[in-house]
Design a protein that fits this description.
By secondary structure, the chain is of the alpha+beta class. It contains 13 helices and 17 strands. Strands 8-7-9-15-10 form a 5-stranded antiparallel β-sheet.
Length: 426
């Protein structure tokens, strides 16, 4: 069973991820994970933290000589900003002298602290500050926000890179692009998946539509001048997926449910749709459901199609999922990300200690992290698909998984023998 666990605070010494269930024999290099970590740190509108961190993974277990062992894989990402926060985030009790020093001087590159231990007592609307402080009986919201920070997504991207490496062994690819930033839509209609991926990688706002890139950047600049933030919508696409991943028989094994859960675990996500999504809800069934065709000629399969034994669709309003299972068409997931909760201009709040009105706290933040969110979305969708893939084809080694997979693909093309009818039936 594929699963992962992450740990670490935003300004702690490191982020840690442990991934279990990856079969032995999978080729895995740190540089492959580092590639996605760099992609996560890019994008127009990022803040000062990206100038400090240069994420590089350390693989400390589960891999030997470039191949997985079948044991849990431990991934470590060091926080370079830790040197500025070592005393503030220390797990040891603070002595009085050290406390006085912390109260008098801010950490390098940070605004001056707000009370003892740089406490956060003025919760930010839209963030986990207030609800978390109340839930965990804290008077200092920093004890919540350090874990709630989007910095934690770096560990998820590392996990997703491992999952993408597994999926690639079986012809699957995960890509993403921004389809709307702050109300400015991008048009990728008619573009091949390869073109979408290439253009998104080359774009500072991760769009496949060059005509709107400048307008999006100008909107981000305007928000920055105004001390505001902006969100938008991105899309994740998985190609080459075989039919039959996920399960219709039990609610918690449906792949679209798993994808929704994974995506909604990301900070600032407020909506997920599969394929036609909400647009399908306002159209008639005859306009929504994807007609089924069959051909023995692989050349007739639409782009991005996975193994199905010859069945295919000419449209993909279902987004590659029917009944909680893949149908062989590309998986298409669209995700709505709200604007970042930390603004450089104040929002009305209430002080946790005094219960008096106050302006919300300010922390170093991005203006727009939508391009980065798309990369994180790739990782989370990759994990969900890899989970379903191993649930169906799993084995202790990659060779065993491959035998299971190839046997299933062959069975899809085999015509089922006609069952004999009972006497008297026609």
């Amino acid at each position: 069973m594929l699963r992962y666990l992450t740990a670490g605070e935003s300004h702690g010494p490191q982020l840690t991820a442990i991934v279990s269930g990856v079969p032995a024999g999978l080729t895995l290099r740190a540089k492959e994970i580092d590639h996605d970590l760099r992609r996560r740190q890019g994008g127009y509108g990022r803040g000062g933290r990206m100038k400090i961190e240069a994420d590089r993974v350390r693989i400390v277990s589960g891999v030997r000589h470039g191949r997985t062992l079948g044991s849990p894989i431990t991934l470590i990402l060091e926080n370079k900003d830790w040197r500025n926060w070592e005393a503030i985030m220390s797990p040891e009790p603070l002595e009085a002298t050290a406390q006085a020093e912390l109260d008098s001087e801010p950490a390098l590159g940070e605004p001056r602290g707000e009370g003892p231990r740089r406490e956060i007592t003025r919760p930010r609307p839209g963030h986990a500050d207030l609800a978390g402080a109340q839930k965990f009986a804290q008077t200092d919201a920093r004890n919540v926000l350090e874990r709630a920070s989007a910095r934690a997504t770096a560990a998820q991207v590392a996990v997703g890179a491992v999952c993408k490496r597994l999926l690639a062994e079986f012809g699957m690819r995960v890509i993403s692009h921004v389809v709307n930033l702050g109300g400015i839509p991008a048009d990728a209609a008619g573009l091949s998946y390869e073109t979408i991926a290439e253009r998104a990688e080359a774009s500072s706002v991760r769009v496949a539509d060059p005509a709107v890139e400048r307008a999006m950047m100008e909107l981000i600049d305007a928000c920055k001048r105004e001390g505001d933030t902006v969100g938008g919508i991105f899309e994740v696409i998985v190609t080459g997926v075989p039919v039959g991943l996920g399960n219709v028989m039990n609610w918690d094994e449906k792949l679209d449910g798993m994808i929704g859960r994974a995506i909604m675990s990301m900070q600032a996500i407020k909506g997920v749709e599969i394929g036609g999504g909400f647009r399908a809800a306002v159209r008639r069934g005859s306009e929504v459901h994807d007609a089924i065709y069959f051909s023995d000629d692989p050349g007739e399969m639409p782009p991005g199609h996975g193994p199905t034994g010859g069945f295919y669709r000419r449209t993909n309003n279902a987004g590659g999922l029917e009944g909680g299972m893949t149908n062989g068409e590309p998986i298409v997931v669209r995700v709505a990300k709200k604007p970042i909760s930390t603004l450089m201009r104040p929002i009305p709040s209430v002080d946790l200690a005094t219960r008096q009105p106050a302006d919300s706290s300010k922390e170093r933040s991005d203006v727009c992290a939508l391009p980065a969110a798309a990369v994180i979305g790739e990782a989370l969708v990759a994990y969900a698909v890899a989970w379903a893939f191993l649930e169906k084809f799993g084995g202790d080694s990659l060779a065993e998984v491959r035998r299971n997979y190839e046997g299933y693909v062959r069975s899809l093309s085999a015509r089922a023998p006609a069952e004999p009818r009972p006497a008297g039936q026609t």
